Amino acid sequence: MLDLLWNFFKMVDKTFDILNSVNIWGKVLKGPITLRNKRTIKENLKVATDYFYNLYMPDKVTLVVNSRRKVPIIGFLLDRHSMISIAEELVWSEEPPLEFLLGRNFSQDHIDTFFSR
Question: Which residues is 34 bridged to in the sheet?
Fold first, then answer.
């Protein structure tokens, strides 16, 4: 049971590191999305996608994405899809307008924080 929990936390952590990159000097998954780390980013997000799509509820019958508790998993999957689409267009295209992408800049937390004062 602890192995399953550990794997879940590790997958969430890796995915969050990629989607919430904040530092242009960060290394590997905590760094910006660039052309140089395209393969690593895509591979890690593919593994995370497969993991989340095949995650079962404790009854070992129902997939989480088909359950009533699917919202956080679907959110991760949508964020992953959005980030890859944005990176394909702005960083990984033939003539990219940007050198790198920081996922943190797409967070709505900044807006929530600003208007909550």
Answer: 100
* C-beta of residue 15 within 8 angstroms of C-beta of residue 97: no
Q: Provide the residue ranges of all domains of the chain, joining segments of one domain with +.
A: 2-110
- Return d(Cα 78, Cα 62) in angstroms, integer: 20
pTM over 0.70: yes
Q: Render pLDDT for 37-70 as a digit per residue (tens, 0 to 9).
A: 999 999 999 999 999 999 999 999 999 999 999 9
Question: In angstroms, rounded to a whole number, what is the distance separating the alpha carbons of residues 105 and 21?
Answer: 8
| Long-range contacts, 21-27 (Cβ 8 Å, 24+) | 21/101, 21/102, 21/103, 21/104, 22/102, 22/103, 22/104, 23/102, 24/100, 24/102
Beta-ladder partners of 33 = 101
> 24: closest CA among 116, 99, 110?
99
Residues 72-115 pLDDT 10s? 899 889 999 999 999 999 999 999 999 999 988 887 776 666 77
CA–CA dist 80, 74 (Å, integer)? 10
